[in-house]
Design a protein that fits this description.
With about 200 residues, the protein is of the alpha+beta class. About 35% of the residues lie in helices and about 25% in strands. The chain has an 8-stranded mixed sheet with strand order 1-7-8-6-5-4-3-2, sandwiched between helices. The longest helix is centred in the last third of the chain and has 15 residues.
Length: about 200
């Protein structure tokens, strides 16, 4: 389970930030589109294949994934190459997740309760990245970075000023840092995955 995270003292990013020009270049080389709720049935089988990429401890059921990707206010982006979907990134306004994440007095939700406590004053302005991954055969091509850039821009255009995510170290977390994210809390064994995840936040407007 993910218990209370260890606070990380503010420090300089260990990776170089991507310039706006570099971000535009990365986006131009990627085929990314937004999933419409009515299109779920057309892509659900492939999206559940991508779900197998995640450790079994944190995989979503099809019903839960559909709910998260199509809920009101959510932004779900898909990356495409060679005629198939190769990656995904989706999230929702943090305020839309509060009731379900805090509904139970459950120690397994400690990481999320810690996050909500941090953003108690700014919650309406926070967009939370729920999940993000790329087919292993298509990694190291900039697809993950492109998805992150596009989702952050989409959240900014929707009026959000903070982009937050629990990102896996060092891969996803370093992408978030390259896009201006700062590490806030560290979780050394995220929900039994034996992997360290970090709450990273970025100002997007």
């Amino acid at each position: 389970m993910a218990t209370q995270g260890k606070s990380i003292q503010a420090q300089a990013s260990p990776v170089a930030l991507l310039s706006r020009r570099e971000q535009i270049s990365i986006l131009s080389r990627s085929d990314i589109f937004r999933l419409k709720p009515e299109e779920w049935s057309k892509v659900s089988a492939r999206l559940m294949e991508l779900e197998e990429i995640y450790p079994s401890e944190i995989r979503f059921s099809e019903d839960y994934k559909k709910e998260e990707m199509t809920r009101e206010g959510s932004i779900a982006l898909l990356a495409r190459a060679d005629g198939k979907i190769i990656g995904e990134a989706y999230g929702s306004p943090l305020s839309s997740l509060r009731d379900e994440e805090l509904a139970e007095d459950n120690e397994e939700l400690a990481a999320f309760k810690q996050m909500f406590k941090r953003y108690v004053q700014t919650e309406p302005s926070v967009f939370y990245l729920m999940a993000y991954d790329v087919d292993p055969e298509y990694r190291e091509r900039g697809t993950g970075t492109a998805l992150s850039i596009a989702l952050m821009r989409g959240a900014a255009q929707a009026g959000f000023s903070i982009f937050a995510s629990h990102s896996k170290e060092p891969t996803s977390a370093n992408i978030a840092r390259r896009l201006g994210g700062k590490a806030i809390f560290s979780y050394p064994d995220w929900y039994g995955t034996k992997s360290t995840y970090t709450l990273v936040e970025a100002r997007i407007s």
